Task: inverse folding
């Protein structure tokens, strides 16, 4: 037996060598300097593109790493002011190229369109990067990447065009150097390019082509050489806006009230990687309304930030190892919003960016007296230092509370992260601590936690512990549940079958097991939830099927009104529920999603049905209809809660569209419509028209919808960059 050990080690060593030969280091890319960049029309037929050296050695990542794939060609140019990226996506079946959406910032997880993704790391810190998406329709999305995660919250000024051709499709991307921050004097930047072919669920990538590699991880990027002597102008962006409003409250006497207003944002690049911003009379008229959701828990729901001013530099505020839905020491929606209504913002100022290896964001906002709330000033700050190759250590500080009470929080976090664990695996471990000074005199004001994470393609394993003191109540943060200790463990085994009938029809299985425990600070169990998905798969054609079971134990510390008039007495409850899910491939012109939950719910039973239908016509029109229907039958009473949504979007081009959103829920009994017209004349110069109206359903004595209020807003936003 001993004699076989050296042979085994030798075989393992030879296997590693074969992997290295299969996935050699990606050669550096070189951007060629030109006097004048190409004219953007989606075609790479401008004479200037001939000066760029084409790169075609893209490799498949999924479904099989390293396999032959559709030819993809990358060209890189730049002039004094802009970086130009040209991508030619050859396709053996060009008539099957998927082009379903012209919407800006469509869902980043959507796999409905042929798309090209570009990652740029102009700091070479291998932790954070810019991402730019362009689909076959020419629709743009932009955001920020950090580790294996990304967000489309950031909005930058850039341009792109796409064109579907007889042998595939191509895209031209223009990124002004004024739009991105960068570290001067670098020998090279980081770049990665990914192409996704939805009908084949095929991912093709420039760099980081192992299946455990994440496109969003800047540490996987290839070198981008040749960029030097850039022209940034004065580093100032002036964004004035003007609005005209017409408002009518149908419950109050009087006619239509007309309002004219205006304001501005000013951005200044103090260095290529560090910026400041000042906003006067900040307005968020163009922001889409929140999605209505049913909440059957005794804790508040998390809604993401959508307002542009707060999104700039927001990734720097990411803290610790918890998700934002469980704890965020800074949650910008606590500023300028009250019960879904906008609180006037007098001014906001902030600085954000990088100074060497230090990442910094400071925010100061003043809000007007409104909704019975006093005039208030809010402050938040975050600093973290890059250490080692992919890790960081930092602090956070907030001061203020929407209620006007004294509230200050300070915290510390440390995260070790690597994408080279055991050679090419991802691994991270981190911890955090916060202390909160508020009006509560007694109790524990601190919180802390740690997380160990192994997020990879075959195995994704995580364990996390968090402690939230009973007097931890961050004024500018989000904490749905304090006075608890929480421990969770999750393990996902995700094999990709390759042989037999199963291998021909199933792309990947997802076997999931998760434990979530909550105890009070004395160690007494409050909640236990065990989730298992014995069947969860994605087919080769893109459909998803899932069956899961959740076992619950919840000890209610007080009487809980789960729905109007239905009150659960305090005490322990044990219940198990089940869920069936089906979702058709999102690249199809007709898409359907069905989810059915059933089983026990506290002292009774619950049925929850979610239905979604979508019709798409070549990006010009999309109609989506969805509903969430809940039926509860408990000894304490029956209840029914329903939400209905209709989205109807019409586009003439990716720069000109009308988005219509209709919502009704029978908890508030309100019907609301939100119509948003968006015309991007040139990048950064946009005209909006937004119309909203709400009705309330009443029985007096007939069932009818009574108008509550309506509002129309016309807004012009300019971007001036000398």
Result:
């Amino acid at each position: 037996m001993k004699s076989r050990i050296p042979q085994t080690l030798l075989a393992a060593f030879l296997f590693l060598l074969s992997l290295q030969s299969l996935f050699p280091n990606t050669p550096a890319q070189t951007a060629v300097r030109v006097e004048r960049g190409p004219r953007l029309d989606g075609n790479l037929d401008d004479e200037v593109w001939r000066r760029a050296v084409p790169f075609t050695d893209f490799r498949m990542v999924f479904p099989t790493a390293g396999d032959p794939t559709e030819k993809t060609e990358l060209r890189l140019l730049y002039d004094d002011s802009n970086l130009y990226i040209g991508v030619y996506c050859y396709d053996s079946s060009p008539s099957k190229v998927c082009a379903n959406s012209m919407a800006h910032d469509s869902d980043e997880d959507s796999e409905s369109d042929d798309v090209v993704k570009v990652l740029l790391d102009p700091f070479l810190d291998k932790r954070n990067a810019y991402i730019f998406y362009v689909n076959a329709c020419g629709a743009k999305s932009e955001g920020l990447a950090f580790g294996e995660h990304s967000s489309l919250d950031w909005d930058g000024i850039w341009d792109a065009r796409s064109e579907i051709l007889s042998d595939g499709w191509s895209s031209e991307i223009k990124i002004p150097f004024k739009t991105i921050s960068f570290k001067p004097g670098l020998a090279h930047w980081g770049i990665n390019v990914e192409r996704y072919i939805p009908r084949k669920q095929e991912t093709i990538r420039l760099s980081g082509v192992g299946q455990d590699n994440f496109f969003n991880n800047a540490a996987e990027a290839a070198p981008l050489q040749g960029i030097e002597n850039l022209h940034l102008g004065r580093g100032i962006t002036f964004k004035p806006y003007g609005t005209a409003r017409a408002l009518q409250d149908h419950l109050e006497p009087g006619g239509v009230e007309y309002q004219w207003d205006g304001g501005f944002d000013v951005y200044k690049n103090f260095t290529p990687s560090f910026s400041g911003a000042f906003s006067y009379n900040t307005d968020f008229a163009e922001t889409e309304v929140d999605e209505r959701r049913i909440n059957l828990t005794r804790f508040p729901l998390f809604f993401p930030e959508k307002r542009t001013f707060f999104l700039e530099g927001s990734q720097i505020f990411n803290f610790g190892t918890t998700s934002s839905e469980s704890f965020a020491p800074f949650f910008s929606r606590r500023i300028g919003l009250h019960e879904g209504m906008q609180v006037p913002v007098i001014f906001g100022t902030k600085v954000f960016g990088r100074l060497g290896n230090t990442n910094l964001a400071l925010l100061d906002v003043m809000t007007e007296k409104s909704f019975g709330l006093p005039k208030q000033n809010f402050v938040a700050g975050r600093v973290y230092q890059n250490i080692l190759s992919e890790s960081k250590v930092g602090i956070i500080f907030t001061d203020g509370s929407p209620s006007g009470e004294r509230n200050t929080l300070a915290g510390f976090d440390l995260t070790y992260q690597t994408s080279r664990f055991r050679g090419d695996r991802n691994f991270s471990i981190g911890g955090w601590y916060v202390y909160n000074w508020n009006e509560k005199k007694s109790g524990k004001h601190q919180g802390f936690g740690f997380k160990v994470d192994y997020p990879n393609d075959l195995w994704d394993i995580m364990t996390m512990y968090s402690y939230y003191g009973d007097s931890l109540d961050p004024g500018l943060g989000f904490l749905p549940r304090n006075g608890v200790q929480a421990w969770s463990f999750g393990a996902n085994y995700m094999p990709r079958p390759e042989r037999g009938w199963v291998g021909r029809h199933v792309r990947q299985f997802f076997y999931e097991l998760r434990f979530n425990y909550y105890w009070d600070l004395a160690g007494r169990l409050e909640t236990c939830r065990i989730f298992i998905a014995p069947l969860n798969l994605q087919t080769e054609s893109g459909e998803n099927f899932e069956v899961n079971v959740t076992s619950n134990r919840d000890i209610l510390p007080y009487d809980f009104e789960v729905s109007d008039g239905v009150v659960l007495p305090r005490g322990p409850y044990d219940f198990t529920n089940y869920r069936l899910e089906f979702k058709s491939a999102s690249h199809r012109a007709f898409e359907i999603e069905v989810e059915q939950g059933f089983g026990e719910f506290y002292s009774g039973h619950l049925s929850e049905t979610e239905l979604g239908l979508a019709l798409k016509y070549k990006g010009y029109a999309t109609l989506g209809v969805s509903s969430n229907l809940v039926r509860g039958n408990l000894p304490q009473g029956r209840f029914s809660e329903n939400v209905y949504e209709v989205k109807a979007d019409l586009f003439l081009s990716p720069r000109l569209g009308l988005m219509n959103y209709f919502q009704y829920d029978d908890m508030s009994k309100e019907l609301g419509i939100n119509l948003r017209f968006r015309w991007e004349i040139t990048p950064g110069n946009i005209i909006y028209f937004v119309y909203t109206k709400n009705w309330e359903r009443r029985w007096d004595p007939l069932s009818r919808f009574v108008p509550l209020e309506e509002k129309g807003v016309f807004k012009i936003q300019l971007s001036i960059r000398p």
Q: What stands out?
A: The chain is about 5% helix and 55% strand. The longest strand covers residues 637-653. Residues 630 and 641 are 5 Å apart (CA to CA).
